[in-house]
Amino acid sequence: MENCKPVQTPLELQPNYDVTKECIANAKPYRELVGSLMYACLTTRPDICTAVNFYSQFQTDATERQWVGLKRVLRYLQGTLDLGFRFKGISDVSLLGYADTDFANRPDKKSVTGYLFEMYGDAVCWATKKQQTVALSTTESEFVARPSAIDNQSCICAVGSWKQKRLKYIDIKYKFINDLCQNNVITIRYIPSVEQKADMLTKGLSSDLFVGHRKHLGMIEVPSHTLA
Fold first, then answer.
1. How many domains does the chain have?
2. Within this chain, do residues 153 and 117 fall inside the same structural domain, yes or no?
3. Residue 217 lies in a domain
4. Which domain of life is it from (predicted)?
5. Range of the domain at 132
6. For residues 23 and 93, is the Cβ–Cβ distance under 8 A?
7. Residue 21 CA from chain centroid, whole number
8. Is 52 domain-assigned?
9. pLDDT tens-digit profile of 118-175?
């Protein structure tokens, strides 16, 4: 892949879920590539988190279609080798978290949570995770994501008065965050989509949206020869 043609995004807008074709998981280094990309996305490359999370779910039944999709991440990295973070500490806010949820857009209808935390304006922690249970609404999916961070308006409004008592574990998450709010440990507010830094951590985006969110995330070109 050293001479591959670069692409602008690591994940297609509508990646392929079909695993009815012949399985290649044991014939090609699919798991090994997932592991290598996982290391990159957890350390310095949050921009590939969504793609790695998506393709990691096919480690036992991947077909040629998933293999081509996974190699797309390498094509994206080939064109963005100099992207990284330069910590500047430009904000007075010691800790700020963003969270977004892609609601029920996968075949199993489980939502995907993405979150990002910043210290003094610099990204230090991020993740993309598929929720373990099926949420019945966007509000409920945000409540599942809320212990990490939160952005859904109806979920924020419900912090002071949670009426839906569907599942005990959701009620526990609500109580946990509500106590933190009442004790002024955290403050929750809505983030417009154009400013939502966690948007790219939940789903595939068009190249324009993806590049814009990546820049908003704080990723810039940091050529290796400039580093001390």
1. 2
2. yes
3. no
4. Eukaryota
5. 96-195
6. no
7. 28
8. yes
9. 999 999 999 998 866 555 455 555 555 555 446 455 555 555 554 555 556 566 666 7
